[in-house]
Design a protein that fits this description.
Blueprint (H helix, E strand, L loop, with lengths): L1 H29 L5 E15 L5 E13 L2 E5 L11 H10 L5 E7 L2 E6 L7 H38 L1
Antiparallel strand pairs: 1-2, 1-4, 2-3, 4-5
Helix pairs in contact: 1-3
Amino acid sequence: MLLRTQLRLFIVGGICCLILSGYFYIQESATLSWPSTQGIVTESFVKLLHSSRGRNSIRPTVVYAYVVNERQYVSSNRGYGIVAGPQYWAGEIVAKYPVGGVVTVYYDPNNPSDAVLEVGRGWAWPLTAAAGLLLIIPAIFAHYFLCKKNDKKVINKKRKRR
């Protein structure tokens, strides 16, 4: 019974991943139709992040300022669906967006404070979809065969009683 509950939790977790993947897909796709404006990079650096487990990771951080409808905004969002990479990758990102550089900023027309430098679909939605499927498919097969095995036990018990 405990195993069935655990398998059901895997299925629910997989469904949640698929829903999240759909959200990422919609969010990333929306940027394709956003208008653009020019901006200026105000900060560009590699940030070292420390975890409580002793594992360190790095994140390239690019801060830029831009103006929409005569109002100035500041953002550090490079894009939706961008996943982390190795250290050399972070250095490449920082080199791509040097301080003082002019950049094209894509912004949400309904909320100009929501902006990105890179539009389109990244890796977040396919990775979360794959994680969801990796949780769901084996759990469904295991649940099916477990139920089939238990059904045979119940049938055999009923036959023995007769």
